[in-house]
Amino acid sequence: MLLAKTKEEKKHFRLGVSGKMILNIAIPIAIILIILAIIITSMVVNTIRALQNKDIESQMDAVSSQVTQYFDPFFVSGQFISDRPSVRQIMAQMEQSPATYRFEMSPLYQQVLRDLQYADTVGGETVQGVWLAGVKNNQFIQSNGYVTDASFDITGRIWYQLLKQNPGENIMTPAYTELSTGNLVVTVAIPYNNAAGEMIGVVGLDLSLDTLKEYFSQIKIGENGYITLYDSSQNIIYHPDSTNLMKNLKDIPYSDNIKQPLENNRSSEVIKYQRDGKTYYGGTCFIERYYWTVLACMTGSEYMRQITMIFVILAIGFLLCIVITSLICLFRTRALVRPLRLIGQVAQKFAEGNLSSDIERQTNDEIGDLEEVFAHTQASLKRIISDIAYVLGEISNKNLTAQTSALYRGDFVQIQQSLHGITDAMKETMSQVRTAAGQVDAGANQVASGAQALAQGSTEQASSVQELSASASEISQKISYTAEQAEHANEQSKFAGEKLGMCTDKMHDLVSAMGEIKQTSDTIRGIIKTIDDIAFQTNILALNAAVEAARAGAAGKGFAVVADEVRNLAGKSAEASKKTQELILNSIEAVNKGSLLASDTASVLEEASAYAEQFITAVMEISQNATKEAEAIAQITQGLNQVSSVVHTNSATAEESAAASEELSGQAAMMQSLISAFRIDETPSVEPIAKPASEMGFTSDYDLKY
Fold first, then answer.
1. Kindly report the CA angle at 463 between 457 and 465, in degrees rounded to 5?
2. In sequence order, what are the beta bridge partners of 192?
């Protein structure tokens, strides 16, 4: 009861083939899609990050180039003024008498002033003033005509200190606030050196940074990103928010990962950093010529906006792919399982002994081949079983002339041979019994004649009794021979039973062969797994090719299309290999069901063996009866001897002998009538020669296999 309950529970909760196919196909595909989604998302995110970082870095390089382009013309203007003849001459005059020389007293003063004013005019609004300073006489001339007195100290100016620190180089000062105008300015200083390389004068241009704001405000990093310029003193000289101007780096709450490259005046890649508790993405670019540093940044929300959007799009896309793939697997699985269910129903009827159900080929694939195999198997079993039933039925009707008419092939040939052996053995035995019965009948008649002769006369009775005794001995020998023949028939029947047992063993071998077919199917499934692995590697290569094509931009579009087709082909190959694997598993299940059918056929053969045993029992009874008859004849012989000894004393013995003879004759006649009921063909059975498969209507390869 417990075992039956367990089987019922398993049957109730079992997972069907369609469910298994969906689980075995949809789940791996879902896992693959999820892995691909993770890989592709990671690659896309990294690509977007790289593109954004590249955009930020390109903007930094652009700002660096623009800063150089912005200030280089002013260096050129300063150098132009420094090279003017009037400036050279006035510097030479000042060097000759530095203590008492005054620029405004020189005849070259006006020319120098016009040169300074020209440079001022050419520089536009950016130039706040152009000046000339004499290091030897400590005097300063501006383009507006202002000339300092002797109290003016050049050495205290920052541009002077920077020129001393960098002899022979043109310099630009850190930003500072002009006291007269309140504007944020920088100074471009061009040293004038004598033949000995000694600095005797300086040409300078005071440049307003207000126009710098207008110049760099057009630069955008993304939508809301911006740049920040730090001068050589690490003060902010440009920022979209003017409240940040002239703030020093040390006073700004940057995280250490971005503050270090700013403090060390070096360029960095785009990194994630913090300011005022907010997240930014940016990098630095150091302008070595001016000792300025550019910081290009983008807010964290804007930086991650595209990544988040791409992530959501990819997630939705892959979820849709999983859903669509699951639906396709569901519909395709139902279509594939439908013919398998029909085959299962037919196989169930086979197991119940019903071979009348028809099965037709519905598909042109392995399942169709399986349907065709089932159809041919059904037809062959019906023919063989019908033929066996016919022969056994005729034997039960005492007709031993029936012969098999169906074509027996393979292991079924042994069944045919066994049936022929049974009929031949029974025919031979019955023929011998019929002959013996005739002989018994003849002997009984002789005994009756002798008894009558004994009744006629006591004189003749003695001789007749002698003859009767001899005849009885002969009858005893015949009946013994009949008993031996019956025993031989019994042995032949046993041999036929052994042949039927061999047929059952061969059917068991058939079940084993079908197990080997299952093992071969497992090997095929391994090969299909190898094809699936190849499809997977092809898909990975196609994906890599698509990434490389994306990197190549417009030039890789064609290659990207090819990569997509290769990836699609790999996906289809993987799907086809998965479906084929499931079909092989279903074929294995069908083979198992065929094994059960073969076992049922073995049971039928065992039933036939049982009928043969019944026949053996009948032959044994005949043998036993013949033995009893031999014993009876022996008793008659003994009685005749007694009659011979008392023939002269008791004539009634002759009458009893006549009655016994008549009874023996009746028994012999009855045996003769029983044996005559069996129809016997004296010609031996002829085993039919197996015809070629083409002559039997089997045309497919599966006819030859199965």
1. 90
2. 201
CB burial of residue 190 (10 Å; 0-12, 13-18, 19+):
buried
pLDDT digits (tens, 9 = 90+) for 95-138: 888 777 888 888 999 999 999 999 888 888 888 889 999 888 88
Pick the CATH number of 15-333 from 3.30.450.20, 3.30.300.20, 1.10.540.10, 3.40.50.720: 3.30.450.20
Per-residue pLDDT tens digits for 240-295:
888 888 899 898 988 888 989 988 888 888 888 998 888 988 889 998 888 889 99
Q: What is the DSSP letter of 226?
A: E
Query: For the chain, what are the domain ranges?
Result: 15-333, 366-705
CA–CA dist 420, 31 (Å, integer): 63
Helix or strand (DSSP H, E) at 528 = helix 458-552
For the CA atoms of 352, 356, 361, 362, the dihedral, rounded to the nearest 10 degrees, stands at -80
Q: Any residues with CB less than 8 A from the CB of 467 and at least 6 apart, and which?
A: 446, 450
Give pairs for 196-199: CB < 8 Å, separation 24+: 197/167, 197/168, 199/135, 199/163, 199/164, 199/167
With a threshold of 0.85, does the pTM exceed it? no
Q: Which class does domain 366-705 fall in?
A: mainly alpha
The two tokens of residue 222 are 């993304």
| φ and ψ at residue 285, rounded to 5 degrees | -140, 120
Please answer whether residues 637 and 661 qualify as being in contact, where contact means their C-beta atoms are separated by less than 8 angstroms.
no
Give yes or no for a contact between 550 and 556, defined as CB atoms under 8 angstroms apart: yes
